[in-house]
Amino acid sequence: MTKKSTLSGGAPVSRRQALRTIGAAGALTAAASLPFSRGARAQAGVTLRWWSPQSSPAQLAAYKFQIAAFEAKNPGVKVNFEPTSDEGYPAQMAAAYASGQVPDVVTHIPSFAVASYFDKGLVEPFDDVIKMIGPEKYYPDANKTYEVKPGTFTGTGIGNTAADNFWVRKDLMEKAGISAIPRTWDEMRAALQKMQGGGIYGAPLPYGRNSATAFVLTTLVHGAGGQFFTPDLQVALASPETEHALEFYKSLRELCPPGATSYSWGEMITGFVSGACATGYYAGRVLVNVNNQNAAIADKITCTLYPTISKDVPQKSVNDFPSVFIPKGTKNLDAAKKFAAFLFDPEGYIKQLLAAPGHVLPVLKTIGENPTYLADPIIKKYPKEVELMTVSAAAGYNLGFESAKHKPNTKSVDIISSEALSEMGQRVALNNESIKTVIGDTAKKLEAIMKG
Amino acid sequence: MTSAVLGGAASVRPYSLQRHYALLGMLLIAPTILIFCAVIVYPLVTAIYLSLFSIYTPTLQGNWVGLANFRDMLGSGQFWGALWTNIVWTVGTLSLQLVFGIGTALLLNQNIWFRSLARSLILFPYFVSTVVAVLVWRWMFNDVYGILNHTLLAAHIVDMPIDWLGHMPNAMVSIIVIGAWKYFPFVVIAVLARLQTIPPQLYEAATIDGAGVWGRFWDVTLPQLRDVLVVIVLLRTIWDFKEFDLIYLLTGGGPVTSTQTLPILVYKQAFGLNAMGTASTYAIGMLLVLLSFMVLYLARVGRGKESA
What we know:
Chain A is of the alpha+beta class. Chain A is built from 20 helices and twelve strands. In chain B, helix 3 packs antiparallel against helix 10 (213-241), helix 8 (170-195) crosses helix 10 (213-241) and helix 9 (200-208) packs across helix 10.
């Protein structure tokens, strides 16, 4: 006997009939929903994915504003922001490329990384976007690091960043009887020794195995008058200058907090902003962080260019030239180009820059002279420091662009992410290994990377 | 002829049924085999295939190098150094997990106050996300603001903050202790479940025979726990050997390469140096090491069955 189910108000039906009915209804619904969902997707338009390692709360708020403004002007286009990190982006980009799931627009990663990806055919040409932004609006030579051949650009700068400013506490200098900001390494070491004590350390320099340590070593090797590569990109690490840089780096270990052995960017800025260290090595974000997080020292800080081994070696800034580029493989190239150009729309761009005033400096002259930008309280409060960072960043260099004579080094991101440089620093400063041996080993690693 | 046909028909019927059942069996097992192939066989074969090439990770393009990656791996100090670090970490953390786990399980098997609450709370480290646990520990280890250094300085035990994660042997000791803290609840759960099934008569008999607390533990509890401990040791060895996130987030493999285990080495080859072929080779090497543990375990189990 077949069991019967009774539908409310209707004739009795068998369970099998009920199941058939439900199944048929489900199939119909599924069939109907297929074209509908395709239609819905078409209506919804494209979704852009935007990656950046810069994602402080204030910056996220500015990005939200820019995204909302872009979506309002471009119905059917949606933009999702996805944060990455300074330490993590090489691995994330590698995984994204390998899986074919690339973001549509990437901002704020160093120019040498873009050059590296371009070299492997992984970047869309950016010429159209620069035309949309307006080449005449840029500061002169603002895009020189992105021009792989005349008229062909791999990306553009979203800003300039002087990454290695020498931040000092004027009150602690005065207390220690130091009349002038140190210019040479000997003066710096002596000043740090005088200022260290009473729970305050000399400097929050990183000794971790990370990109921050690699940046510091770049500053020091160049500050000793040396270079990692010859202009035609032969490894030039084995030099007395590198030895001097590593000796100095090692001698500073006792003037840094004990945990500096695992410090990276975050600990470096916190070390100075919190007041735990008398000096700092960081970009302009220090200004806003000090004012927001430790206002008591806001009037007691200033910055200058990082000291060098002697006055004969000129002071220069490491600028990672924060970029905007479009990875090859984006499924929404036209929309990505429109969005990349829109990031420079004055209202949103100024909001973005002022989310960390002095940290990411404008690449557009029209913005640098804009009254709204100049009216920012931090920019107004620290005009000398902002001016210094603006000028030094524009003339800055990095591992992928060691000097005007150097060819662009498209292996720089591989060198940083291989951790060869930070490992070199750790072996000397922490393991107390022979400097010559360590330099020799590191030079071999760099040669292998350059060949690979 | 009729009889032959009939006979033939009679022989076909059981054959059809058998075939029908065989087909049904294959049909029922097919999803399992398909999933097994998709999640085990395919990645394994792909890893072996990739290990024979020199491949740039972002483009997944490269050249055939045959067994050169394996030759380089066996000839490089990196692999052996990471393997040794892996063994130190695994043996260290597993030993502590067993000591803490068995000790806590014995305590929770007693009639103590708030036993139910304690049994629930003890699971907390196991359930908390590794990222959160690492953030909390890193904060406690912080040289300037961390509670550990603050306490030690306040108690005048040390003059300067201790560098817990950036100096050897502190870094290795720290990750071993944190690993033990994170995973000992697994040992507690498994051992406690077994403890609750040990007949009380065994303890009564041992007590009558004059066994003290240590004697009862050694002669009754431990033999009863042996089977479950073998399973725990095997599983935790495998899991600890391939631990990545905890160590990577705590030390990143440093200082220099002092805490760089094989999984971290594989990750750095794949995404730091963008050498997917070499990374696959290291992964295969790691698999072979784990396979040797498995063979040892199976041999041990086989001997146990024979002696029984």
